[in-house]
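3.2 Worked example (two chains)
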Amino acid sequence: MEITIDGKKRISAHFDGFEVKTDLSAEHQGENTAPSPYDLFLASMGCCAGIFIKNYCDQRNLSAEGIKLTQNVEWSEEDGRIGKIITQIFVPKDFPESHDAGLIRVTNYCKVKKQLHPDIEAEVSIVRI
């Protein structure tokens, strides 16, 4: 992976033929042309959980259509780090409730999430839409 400094607060990562651009908000002296590195970190965790949910559904011949996740962060007032990550898995009304625990379980398999400090609380729930 190669990281380039592209001007002002714009930084890019180049790997495997991909380019991932980042920037900071104007509030942080950036131009807000791309997500911040921290936002990409959080997005990668949510996308990783999504992959595990999709694989869970595929292995059980369940449709993943209509499933979405939201992820919110509560910050620690002590040191400004993540204190808690709240993930909600939205599933269609007719998604079998017998798989709720399985979906919650597999979100914790995410390798990105496993890099977090063990003191960070994680809350995962199912919401029927």
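3.2.1 Second chain
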Amino acid sequence: MYRFKNIRRNLKPMIFKHVYSFLLIGTLVTGCHSNSTSLNSASNTQPIDKKVFTAIQWKDSVIHLGNITMGDTVSFHFRFQNIGKEPLLIKEVITSCSCTHVDEVSQAIPPGGEGKIHAVFDTRKSIVGFVKKGILVTTNTQPAQKQLLYTAEVTGHKKIG
């Protein structure tokens, strides 16, 4: 009898804990589900005008610059083509650090046309060793953003002063 009472006494808190956990998880799942439904219904009320979107094909999205001596600047470009039916607009280009400068692409690229994003890597603003940098390009395509990458091995010594 004593053994049975201990089991019953220990069983009640365990059952309460499991029921409480089940209710809590159920509330969270239901709450998340209802939020996602309201977000989806809100996005359905604002249709996206797909006429302004086009398509882009990147001919270069990763460039390996190889070995570069500290103090040098290297010029390179990422090539692309507008494979859609609307003019391609480069809305924004953001570099990952001050060691990279990118020329602005201000003109629209017509359907079938090609373009390039010209970049310059200045090793004086970088580190010695392996370098992996990114350039984020925003266009009127879906998806709107593309991460372009370049790598280099910077050799030599960085001058202080």
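3.3 Remarks
DSSP finds one helix and eight strands in the chain.
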